[in-house]
């Protein structure tokens, strides 16, 4: 029993077992129902704490493990009016659903997502001669099933499709072909053009897709009119839905749905449950939804693991006999090894996993490392580093050596000295046109993005804050920057809060440069590539004092790096084990690298992280199966 809930809450906060916000929530509920069973309040605080860790719900059977005094919750949890079952009082703040306890808002979000997905299960009519179209779009290429072709077929047949795959497995290529095919079919049947929208959870991810999609459309083997009907502009989800400052609500919702027939969302692993619920709410009933992402990456910063849940069974396929027979007809492939007719579920028929990386061939160290990490294969991880591939290196993790690598790079793989050299070498004359300064700013941003140091944490000796200090100091000592205080030329900064007035989004990175001040002189300005209304990129110089929420970004957390890629990526792990060190974190860090990856970690810490696979509690998969 908990004799004094106020004391219990205070002690738990003091001991770091609860956050203040969890305690505040329990106190709020206590005020709603005076005399409520203290165990219900403790449960509410624990559910709130678990949400902070990304879990949508808590297994009632585990409450006793979390807090011994909660005993056998099954016996008392349903007796409070604060807890209702799904059919019960809709005002009850906690919901008990099949042995899982939720805060109502998250239970509702989960139900909304599940309903929207289930409503899109089933097969749409497919055109005659789809096999001919697919053969044309996906010429035979290597042995084994062509998973891109399979993914394309699945996306054509259903109003809901998930295409998952590691870096460079062809998600973008596949979706462009899906869109080309859908538009060509509409064109052929004399139907209006489909209204297609492309979106990503962050500005960075949107800009990256934006950069690759135009080229993909250009290479598509379809009529010019069809090409023109595929948009190349990618927007952020916030912008798509119409975010309102200071409000969680969006302009587009169930009552004011998006004007869209097909919505494609890239980097879907970054979308939390609440955002997914809002997106699906705003999607008209007849619209198609195609989600792209890498299921093995870190889950969203906020609670939920929507893509992970949707793709939990992607590896094995679980195609049913109908899907198997249909894929044999339209794709001429045998997915026999991926069929399990007795286990197959409706969701499985809408998911395809791309398995061949075009970016990282068989001889790529980065590709092999990412695969070994994903498999939790420590011996494999070790042997990849021992192969001596030039794209990979593991260096001693002392904080000082991290700073040296970050500045000097290794071999051909650049460090930060490179972009500072480029800024100097490409500097326009003081009287050059503003267009020259814009081009220079764009080059500074491109050069900066060739390298990035990633850290697991913000704090600690190998965390972002200390590494930022060390790298700045190292650059100062080498004469590459003039000071380490305040604003100085070369300082790279990351925006930490959306600023709609400036068009800057959380996660955007800018570089500080001496640039024309508009009054005939020069002043420090921060150059950003901002997205315009049409999804294109525009160079913008911002006065530093207008940037209310920025921080230096020689080092950034792996979490913040999601949706970005760098030619050379270095990952520094802390010396001590920590709860943030997980397989997904290391995999996400490694797969940010396009050409070179450098690991700065002790072997035992890497092993510790690779063995820890995260599992976020959520009921989404249960609802969908
Ligand atoms: N079927 C294919 N035939 C030839 N080249 C391909 C094919 N599919 C993809 N590629 C090439 O492989 C590279 C990666 O493809 P793509 O960008 O579509 O992958 P992705 O999974 O979207 O990558 P990312 O990890 O960047 O999101 C591109 O250069 C693309 O042109």
Automatic annotation (TrEMBL):
Keywords: ATP-binding, DNA damage, DNA repair, DNA-binding, Exonuclease, Helicase, Hydrolase, Isomerase, Nuclease, Nucleotide-binding
Self-association and partners: Heterotrimer of RecB, RecC and RecD. All subunits contribute to DNA-binding.
EC nos: 5.6.2.3
CDD domains with a match to the protein in the record: DEXSc_RecD-like, SF1_C_RecD
Domain RecBCD enzyme subunit RecD N-terminal: 15-102
Function according to Swiss-Prot or TrEMBL: A helicase/nuclease that prepares dsDNA breaks (DSB) for recombinational DNA repair. Binds to DSBs and unwinds DNA via a highly rapid and processive ATP-dependent bidirectional helicase activity. Unwinds dsDNA until it encounters a Chi (crossover hotspot instigator) sequence from the 3' direction. Cuts ssDNA a few nucleotides 3' to the Chi site. The properties and activities of the enzyme are changed at Chi. The Chi-altered holoenzyme produces a long 3'-ssDNA overhang and facilitates RecA-binding to the ssDNA for homologous DNA recombination and repair.
Top EC class, one word: isomerase
Other remarks on this protein: In the RecBCD complex, RecB has a slow 3'-5' helicase, an exonuclease activity and loads RecA onto ssDNA, RecD has a fast 5'-3' helicase activity, while RecC stimulates the ATPase and processivity of the RecB helicase and contributes to recognition of the Chi site.
Single Gene Ontology MF annotation: exodeoxyribonuclease V activity
Hydrolase as UniProt keyword: yes
InterPro entries assigned: Coronavir_polyprotein_1ab, P-loop_NTPase, RecD, RecD_N, RecD_N_sf, UvrD-like_helicase_C
The UvrD-like helicase C-terminal domain, residue ranges: 553-599
Domain of life: Bacteria
Catalytic activity: ATP + H2O = ADP + phosphate + H(+)
Gene: recD
Protein name (Swiss-Prot/TrEMBL): RecBCD enzyme subunit RecD
Binding site for ATP: 165-172
UniProt similarity note: Belongs to the RecD family.
Source species taxonomy: Bacteria, Pseudomonadati, Pseudomonadota, Gammaproteobacteria, Lysobacterales
Record-linked PANTHER family: DNA HELICASE B, DNA2/NAM7 HELICASE FAMILY MEMBER
